Amino acid sequence: MTVQQPKPSRIDWITLMLYYILVIAGLFCIYASVYKDIHPNIWDTSENYGKQLIWIGISSFVGLMILLIDEKFFYAFAYPIYGITIVMLLAVLVVGTTVNGSSSWIEIGGMRIQPAEFAKFGTALALAKFLSGYNVNYEKDRKVQIISAAILILPMLIILLQNETGSTLVFTAFILVLFREGLPGWILLVGFMLGVLAILALLIKPLYIIIGLSVLAVLFLLLVRRTTQLIWLTIGTVMVAGLMVSSIDYVFANVMQAHQRTRINVLLGKEVDIKGAGYNVQQSKIAIGSGGLWGKGFLQGTQNKFRFVPEQSTDFIFCTIGEEYGFAGSVLFVILYIYLLFRLLVMAERQRQKFNRIYGYSVVCILFFHFVINVGMTLGLMPVIGIPLPFISYGGSALLSFTILLFIFIRLDANRVNELRGAYD
Amino acid sequence: MNNFEKQRTLLIIFISVALIYIARLFYLQVVDESYVFYAQNNVLQEQTIYPARGLIYDRNGELLVYNDAIYDLSCIPDQIKNLDTLEFCRVLNMNKEEFISTFARLKRQKGYSPWKPIVFQRQITIPTYAAFQEKLFDFQGFFVEVRTDRKYKHKNAAHVMGYIGEVTDRDIEKSNGYYRMGDFIGISGVERIYEKELGGIKGTRYVLVDSKNRSQGRYKNGEFDTAAIAGKNIHLSIDQKLQALGEELMQNKMGSIVAIEPKTGEVLALVSTPTYDPNLLVGRERGNKYMELLKDKDKPLFNRPISAPYPPGSIFKIIMSLMGQQEKVLTPATSYGCHHGYLFVGCHAHGSPLALRGAIAVSCNAYFCQVYRSIINNPRYKHVEDAYNEFYKHAYSFGMGHALGIDLYGEGPGVLKKATYFDKIYGRHRWQALTTISMGIGQGELGITPLQMANATAAVANRGYYITPHIVKKINNHANPNPAFNTKHWTTIDTSYFPVVIDGMQDVIEHGTAYVARIPGIEICGKTGTAQNPHGKDHSIFFAFAPKTNPKIAIAVVVENSGFGATWAAPIASLMMEQYLTGKHDTRKALLERMLKGNLTHRNDSTATKTK
């Protein structure tokens, strides 16, 4: 069998173009956010933007390599890659370096990388390979469901031990992938309801919620045709919900750390703390809000330039877009990003191979999760969870891992014509 | 749900999120404009540029008050690193406890921020500053800020100049926020009254700062900055040499000297003793020194010449002589006999009977009791109140019984009662001249500040008018624009009644009670006064003007509890007039010596402070 080189015409150029638009835009935002008059040179590698430029080069090279590798490599080596990322995650627990309170970094020859970033595509590959196997039916087979969950939960647990709550939460994005592969919609709905209930539990005393739910249950039972089964089901639901609400309240009050409690309280509007936990969000909103309709212009954003916004080149990079390019630029950016996601969704759905499709959905969902949390956080709509904005935020590990994640899918997609010919099986 | 619907569901989720975020962006960036304001608040720092305070000169252009640099030691707490506390304390000459407590105090201050500059120690001494400057590199986070404070070239005229100090909360409130905590403001004297002129206008510079409050350059190239406008220089009407002599003559005595140029109302000297060195109320010790002065039993802070009312004693006879003539109850030829007094008012031995001019020269008590009686019991008026009100009106027109409006803070009105006052005590129509006879010789219900005395003298010297006495002659080399300082206040006495009285005043010097004050070659007109007071020995009082024609100086001197007017007040006034008119004061060595050496501090307490 010969190695199938992708023909240039089969590469999805639109996706590739969107990728470069975002990466270059990100570079300019990083440049603007750390810009100082004394270091105006964008090639200056001692500054974040210079380093990011190097990482763009590295990422482009790795991306090219991925496009040149036989697409069967990823199918064949999915498990080993997953295994390596798990080993790396475990290694961090032993030899990890602590940066900003999270011990998720590993130093290799002067370079610091964050294995948690690479675990994302490792997990995506493993999940795709497992679910695309012969006689694997996610919808019907309980065992398959359990193994899928295990594949996801293993890296989550290790990353949680590294004190990286943000990266751990990213793995919940795979629920959407499983939804596509047969996870019933009602679980998504129940999950959504549970989320609402959880937020309510933090806002209102659990006792009131239980009373409210009981009243709703009684009304429900009065309105429908009652069967014994339905009555018990309703009673059970109320009891489980009550238990959950109480335990959330207990965890919030007794297990969570003070700073986490404050963050959540600030987000829910229960606490006003402009100087403390709310400071970051307040400053972020000020930076974005002061941008106005058309923005202040490139390098004119005072809030970012003068360090009022925290982490302005990494987690809060969207503030630079908001401040310097205003509402117009922000909307353009949101549309571009959603268009990339839409494009990837279309690409994922057009795959003939289950492996390719599942992997594609994983890419879409991971990127979407990052986008929702990161941008929502700067707008004060989401809790402050430190995860980067893919392709935009400063950070070598993140850029490289997102590039690999995306380019593997571009490579798989480029081969879909060959699959038609049956060359794959 | 088929696969297409599942894809559709995800797409709907994506688009909903995008729409929610766009709506939120629209709210933050377009609808809610407060964020623009917050952003400006973040980065724009308003820095104040302090103008130099105006200088103060005397009438001859001699510099009296100037500005001196003072050094505040400030720090930015966040930038203090690797501080060698022991060395730091040694340089600043403080111990460790003080260092710790100072920091604790700073942290409690309103608006404390570790990134903002804060004054660690105000007004460090120049040697400390020098020692500190050498070690500045070792004390990261500390720096020295330069401000200016006042410095006085002479230790004279403390009560005229006043002093400056840090603004109080009330000043800040009253100024509508113009003043800020720590700014200097005039607290008394000329510094207070002319604060607007001397203070200048602060400038503002807008600077961009980063989140740590570090300067990042000018805002829009200084487009919105305003320059500071320096304070205006002021020329006082005070003659520094005359003022210095006055204070020297009054040393070890309590009392006042006020000298006025009659034609202009300009105050040439304003002496209040005991006095203090104005340089005491400067610098970091200001507060302590002020408390010391405040507690001093001699009340050096009390501005006697403008606020202490004294019974005028016999100098009031001059006013009586003019009133009598105006009321047509007295002519220059009117004679009264004197047999060592009038009823219970005693008098000394002199020839009798006397006409007006002679009575003034010898200061006959009986004569002026008669004059007072004929004014108050004037048959032209139906009631005693009406006649007394005429008396009141005349005295008032000489500037008595009300504050004259000098440009100094704390001027008192003196004491001059209305008829209703006596009505209240004795009943309506139930009193007459004899009830209040002591007023005829300047005792009783009369209180006149030395400034009012000098002003009355000026009115006599001008033959009928005075100009509101004032201290500031020129502002920025232009005449004081206050119209009151350029207006003639006419007395109620006809000009034609003055010459005989002035002749009498000249007799006082030439061969009367104040012969001691005579200066060969200068025609002086004056009147002594010896004011009884219930608290101790008589006050020695004298007022005079010279020369007789075209008077250049009108002066009033009060020396508390020192006896006859001729003993202390007249010689001092004479020396002062000589100094002002001839530029010399040492032609009469023995007299000068006696005045300078006279020490009256052992005498009993000041009346003025008690009547106050």
Give an account of the 3D structure.
The complex is a heterodimer of chains A (425) and B (612). Chain A has 18 helices and three strands. With 425 residues, chain A is mostly helical. Chain A folds into two domains: 8-182 and 288-420, no CATH class; 190-255. In chain A, strands 1-2-3 form a three-stranded antiparallel beta sheet. Chain A is globular, with a radius of gyration of 23 Å. Chain B has 612 residues and is α+β, with helices and mostly antiparallel strands. Chain B has two domains: 47-236, Penicillin-binding protein 2a (Domain 2), CATH 3.90.1310.10; 240-289 and 306-611, Beta-lactamase (3-Layer(aba) Sandwich). Helix content of chain B is 36%, strand content 20%. Chain B contains 22 helices and 23 strands. In chain B, the strands form seven sheets. In chain B, strands 2, 3, 4, 5, 10, 18 and 19 form a seven-stranded mixed beta sheet that branches. In chain B, strands 12-11-23-22-21 form a five-stranded antiparallel beta sheet. In chain B, strand 8 (203-209) and strand 9 form a beta hairpin. In chain B, helix 10 packs antiparallel against helix 20 and helix 14 packs parallel to helix 19. The longest helix of chain B is centred in the N-terminal third of the chain and has 29 residues, at 3-31. The radius of gyration of chain B is 34 Å and the shape is elongated. Chain B starts with a helix and ends with a helix. The interface between A and B is large, with 40 and 35 residues.
Total number of distinct structural domains of chain A: 2
β-sheet strand percentage of chain A: under 5%
- Alpha-beta classification of chain B: alpha+beta
Major sheet strand order of chain A: 1-2-3
The helix content of chain B is 25-40%
CATH level-3 fold name of the largest domain in chain B = Beta-lactamase
Whole-number total of structural domains of chain B = 2
CATH architecture of the largest domain in chain B: 3-Layer(aba) Sandwich
